[in-house]
Amino acid sequence: MDRDKLFDIFKIAIDMEHEAHEFYTKAAETTSDPEVKMLFEEFAAAELVHKQKLKEKYSLMREDVQE
């Protein structure tokens, strides 16, 4: 796979994780059910972990290209 295309895919994935985090955060804010709120908050936190992992891998790949 072309590196530029791979980098683009990672950027899209990072953006999608960010959007998912925002979605779950807003969903947690709008529900009155404490159990559902907690579930959405857990989902939001998981999306942040996914985003961070993708960003770390993206950075490592970029470093490899620059060497």
What does this protein structure show overall?
- The protein has one domain.
- By secondary structure, it is mostly helical.
- The chain has helices spanning 3-30, 34-66.
- The model has no long low-confidence stretch (mean pLDDT 95).
- The two termini are 19 Å apart.
- The protein has two helices and no strands.
- It is elongated and about 50 Å long.
- Helix content is 91%, strand content 0%.
- 7% of the residues are buried.
What structural keywords apply?
2 helices; 91% helix; single chain; 67 residues; mainly alpha
Residue windows where pLDDT falls under 50 for at least 5 positions: none
Q: Main β-sheet: number of strands, strand sense, barrel status?
A: none
Please provide the count of β strands.
0
Number of domains: 1
- What fraction, in percent, of the residue positions are helical? over 70%
**Quaternary structure type:** single chain
Shape: elongated
C-alpha end-to-end distance: 19 Å
Note the beta-strand portion.
under 5%
Number of helices: 2
Query: What structural class is derived from the secondary structure elements?
Result: mainly alpha
Task: Set down the secondary structure blueprint.
Blueprint: H1 3-30, H2 34-66
Gist of the model:
The chain has 67 residues and is an all-alpha fold. The chain has helices spanning 3-30, 34-66.
